[in-house]
Amino acid sequence: MGEVDPVAINTLNHEPDIKYIVPGLKRGLDILKIFNRKRVQMNAPEIANELQVPRSTIFRLLQTLEYMDLIEKVPNTSNYKLAAGALGLGFEFLASLEITDFADPILEKLSNKTGLSAHVVIRDKTDVVFIAKKSAKLTFSSSVNIGTRLPAHGTVLGRVLLADLSKAELKKLYPESELVSFSKQTPESVDKLSQVLELDRVNGYAISEAYFEHGIGSIAAAIRDGSSKAVAAINVTYQLGTVEKSLINGLLLESVLAAAAELSRQLNYSDQKALRNVG
Amino acid sequence: MGEVDPVAINTLNHEPDIKYIVPGLKRGLDILKIFNRKRVQMNAPEIANELQVPRSTIFRLLQTLEYMDLIEKVPNTSNYKLAAGALGLGFEFLASLEITDFADPILEKLSNKTGLSAHVVIRDKTDVVFIAKKSAKLTFSSSVNIGTRLPAHGTVLGRVLLADLSKAELKKLYPESELVSFSKQTPESVDKLSQVLELDRVNGYAISEAYFEHGIGSIAAAIRDGSSKAVAAINVTYQLGTVEKSLINGLLLESVLAAAAELSRQLNYSDQKALRNVG
DNA sequence: AAATATTGTTTAATATATGAAACATTGATT
DNA sequence: AATCAATGTTTCATATATTAAACAATATTT
After folding, report:
1. Interface membership of A94 toward B (CB under 8 Å)
2. In degrees rounded to 5, what are phi and psi of residue B92?
């Protein structure tokens, strides 16, 4: 029974074939991952039930996680919640990204110029992950937190990043030809996605009138590093119907492109290199 | 500017006696924790050597961590670095804190009003941990990142939080009567600390001319929740010698106190409750 | 280019982490 | 208050994770 079947464990991952998973580690990390915005605290039996792991084992894993300052008891309850130690990991990752040194002031400028919420994402496999944001001052500010993941193929932020991949890389990333749909505009297949990306690549940006969330528009452009690789993407979001089309294709798009260009420049991107690669 | 070395700072854990630690989990987490700003990437033998764990074990732990999207190979090297999955944990923790919903706009207002960098921290045992910040626009902006830890007893941010503890709680938190010193102003013993905290408690704020980093001044106040407990602290920092003393004790202090009061109000703190508790 | 050192990966014996079961403690219900 | 149910914790036999050792595949040096 204790035998590990890495394939069956997590169907969303496309890792290279894993030979051996350390059960104690995997289970401990699984515990950490079941805590989220919606389920801030849980007790041991609930966790044991959810993960289908014996109570006595959960007990020891919880002790270990508590010892490592990753979870802590909620006072006066039998519940556990994430502890401050969990912060460390995430922020060391952020700190390891060169772009985080430059993103905040540029996002602020972009948000001020457009009056909209602005975001920077990176791609992690088939997801985009928010790594920096500036909420708009007045309007409904965007609800995404840093660390939030969205499916890359369903967002313009993801598309400008996926557009940087070759068709072969794309097929490898999406072994199933079917894609999950989130709106009428979501490409339903990898082939369809590939066509859309072709256009995004030519444009150098992508604009969506549906985005991942209904009623939200998004204008996105890729950020490139010194090797001309698209390493991140930047966007602004707005409520559909509240912004003139001429503004979208005018000032807003220009502002996003300018911000992307400025961030790219800070990462030592230069047009020359890009042209040389293309030509 | 003197950068903070979070690794060297936090040496002390005061966990309850732990009966049993799951080795696979502890070691896997140890691997994650050796990645930081200074050491962004490492290879397997280096990790094995650092943690004094056999190569074959490290090999499997690394495989597991990679499978869980917490680390990834650095392209064209044998090194590993933190992966985007690490972000999730930290931000779910942040999202679980009620205060993060309100901190950003208040920090922005405080920073704009004072022209200084502003920060919010929580306390985790004997450390303060930065959970939100707004860097000043013009001056040398502060180098602390979210997730950074500083020893509570050596900062005014920490002191306004420690001031909320009873003497018994303080002694329990610092079983050794000696305290690590970071500047001439650092209290060298728990008794000395206790005296300083008494004053901080009466004042309702704390001002430092040495702070943790040399040459940096700091004005801090506690943020309280509906139960009048000091759950966080807010401050502004400035370079010593660049700000008039009258300004520090005037506008700057007022602004910090106002920001702390506003945040406390958002957490349902009311003066009545506080007075009732005291009297 | 050959030799050597370092790193990556697998094997197999054995030390040990696991989990069913028992027991202890706490909380809920009558 | 007494009983029952749920949760917290420990024990111990055994399934399995660990690691020394061997081997394979790369780097590095000569």
Report:
1. yes
2. -70, -35
Q: Rounded to 5 degrees, what angle do the CA atoms A87, B116, B235 make? A: 50
How many angstroms separate the CA atoms of A55 and A75, rounded?
21
| Listed residue (A62, A89, A34, A22) closest to B32, CA to CA | A89
Tens of pLDDT, residue by residue over A186-231, are 999 999 999 999 999 999 999 997 656 678 899 999 999 999 999 9
Strands of the sheet with B205-208, listed across from one edge: B149-151, B127-134, B117-124, B230-239, B216-224, B205-208
Dist. CA B169–CA A67, nearest whole Å: 20
Q: Is the CB of A175 under 7 A from strand D?
A: no
Q: Does B84 touch chain A (CB under 8 A)?
A: yes
The residue ranges of chain B whose pLDDT is under 70 are: 1-18, 138-142, 210-213, 272-279
B1 touching chain A per CB within 8 A: no
Q: Domain B97-278 belongs to what topology?
A: Beta-Lactamase (3.30.450)
Average pLDDT of the residues of chain A:
88
CATH class of the structural domain A6-88: mainly alpha
CATH class as words, domain B12-89 = mainly alpha
Q: Provide the CA A21 distance to its chain's centre, in angstroms.
A: 25
- Provide, as residue numbers in chain B, all residues whose Cβ is less than 8 Å from the Cβ of A22: 24, 28, 60-61, 64
Contact A187, A153 (CB under 8 A): yes
Please provide the distance, in angstroms rounded to a whole number, between the alpha carbons at the two ends of chain B.
Answer: 45
List the alpha helices (DSSP H) in chain A: 6-9, 23-34, 44-51, 55-67, 85-96, 100-114, 156-162, 167-173, 190-203, 245-247, 253-266, 271-278
Domain boundaries, chain B: 12-89, 97-278
- Chain B residues with CB inside 8 Å of A83's CB? 93, 124
A29-53 pLDDT per residue, tens: 999 999 998 899 999 999 999 999 9
